Target: Aldo/keto reductase
Amino acid sequence: MTIDNPKTPTVALGTWAWGDSGKAGDGYFGSALTRVGLEEVVERAHAAGFTLWDTAMVYGMGRSETVLGDVLKRYPRGDYQLSTKFTPQAAGSGADPVADMLEQSLARLGTGYVDLYWIHNPADVQRWTPHLIALLESGKVKHVGVSNHNLREIELANRILGEAGFRVEAVQNHYSLLYRSSENAGILDYCRDQGIPFFAYMVLEQGALTGKYSLENPLPEGSNRAQTYNGMLSRLKPLTDKLDAIGHKHGAQAADVAIAWAIAKGATPIVGVTQPRHIDGLTRAGTIMLSRDDMAELEALADGADVNTRGWWEKEM
Model:
């Protein structure tokens, strides 16, 4: 039995880092992951009731999907949900590049359908969105969403799908204490008004908001994220110290509080998980109720850090 019309989870599980090559310092995150280690992550997630896994063809150019499909295959397909993406910038030249990329993803994931299929970037909303309709009708895609789209593009995609009796069922953008462009641009309000779940990726800013990294202990040298974040760690210290202090009150960690902040804002965080203990943090984050004062102070400290963490692949919202 498949999960249809899935209830939006409190937190989704991200596998961007699973696309790294496996050599430390080589890849976006510089993570050295093993098959056994990721099996433990999946076991812990399954036991804790986290079921939605988010990946994309371009995460390691297929490596993330392949590894994810491999470690999930011991579970019945109805026990988990898969979310993957069509990336226009990587489109092939066939008659239907969206269907082609989906077929490749299905093969790597070892499944006949995905629960949630996204258009990853809005290269041409008018061109790519209609391709989702046939995939929905075929049953190979249960639900569709758009990622990295601005408000005008989300509305356009919704209109195109609406003409065929479908709709945008999820929006996924970069959203964190340090990067609130989707909130400022009215996207969160639009999603709330339309009843569209808003998924937030990079809630922890690739580890920079976990409190784990500092000038003395920077992010892994040679990784892309080290280039982005190591130069701003000193400016983030007042914020990460506050996250840590609030966490201490709740028997939790700084990262758990940053995730709880996003949940309190009405978002479903997609959090990268590479170790079993990360699952424990997600469980804690779901139990933390932040006060209005905590929320306001965290946002003020984030604003005070005055950093721009917009990814190279993102445009202004």
User: Anything to note?
Assistant: The first helix runs from residue 35 to 48. The chain has a mean pLDDT of 93.
